[in-house]
Specification:
CATH topology of the largest domain: Beta-carbonic Anhydrase, Chain A
Structural class: alpha/beta
Order of helices and strands: HHEHEHEHHHHHEE
Helix content: 40-55%
Strand order of the largest sheet: 2-1-3-4-5
Shape: globular
Distance between the termini: 65 Å
Bound molecules: cobalt (II) ion
Number of domains: 2
Largest sheet: 5 strands, mixed
CATH architecture of the largest domain: 3-Layer(aba) Sandwich
CATH superfamily of the largest domain: Carbonic anhydrase
Oligomer: single chain
Radius of gyration: 19 Å
């Protein structure tokens, strides 16, 4: 008799067969076309949260979005993983839009707001504590803790978009062509994205000390 653990992962393999089959029924050439290469227009930097899958919430197909996800959708200037994804997406794939998508009800944001110890992740979430610290007056003025978390979620996205603008990678690309940076927040309880409209199409939005002479 199979144990339930085995059955639970087999569900994914069965799901994969069904997925492959249905795609081929719609378009027999679907996978053949995908195998020729990718040319996505978008880079998605989102939270690892299982409820915010990039393609599903944007109704897009395989091949349309290059994806990087980490806990609380952070753009950390020393993160080799993020920087490698960013450079590859901009320089080699030529993506036109970089989207930082946070989400309301983010456990990472919640954890960063508290003084509790969660483990190694606290060192990662320190970046959000720094955002909190920067906007402490505004945030502390919000009495309701859910509303405060929502605002911190938005401010965190805005700061991560700024962090993108501060990278040498984005600034070098801006010298050559237009690249649009977007800050979005997804509502898990509505399925809808709020566009924070923090589009930085140049270095005007970041302080002088972060602007490189290129
Ligand atoms: Co999250």
């Amino acid at each position: 008799m199979e144990n339930p653990m085995e059955l639970s992962y087999k569900r994914l393999l069965d799901g994969n067969k069904a997925y492959s089959m249905s795609k081929k029924i719609d378009d027999p050439e679907y996978f053949k076309k995908l195998s020729l290469g990718q040319r996505p227009d978008y880079l998605w930097i989102g939270c690892s949260d299982s409820r915010v899958p990039a393609n599903e919430v944007t109704n897009t197909e395989s091949g349309e979005i290059f994806v990087h996800r980490n806990i609380a959708n952070l753009v950390v200037h020393t993160d080799m993983n993020l920087l490698s994804v960013l450079e590859y997406a901009l320089v080699h794939l030529g993506v036109k839009h970089v989207i930082v998508c946070g989400h309301y009800g983010c456990g990472g944001v919640r954890a960063a707001m508290s003084n509790n110890l969660h483990g190694f992740v606290d060192n990662w979430l320190r970046n959000i504590k720094d955002v909190y610290h920067k906007y402490e007056k505004v945030l502390n003025a919000i009495e309701d803790s859910d509303k405060r978390a929502d605002r911190l979620t938005e401010l965190n996205v805005i700061e991560q978009v700024r962090n993108l603008a501060k990278t040498t990678i984005v600034q070098q690309e801006w010298k050559k062509r237009e690249v649009h940076l977007h800050g979005w927040v997804y509502g898990i309880n509505s399925g809808l994205v709020t566009d924070l409209s923090v589009i930085h199409d140049g270095t005007e939005d970041i302080d002088k000390i972060y602007r490189y002479v290129i």
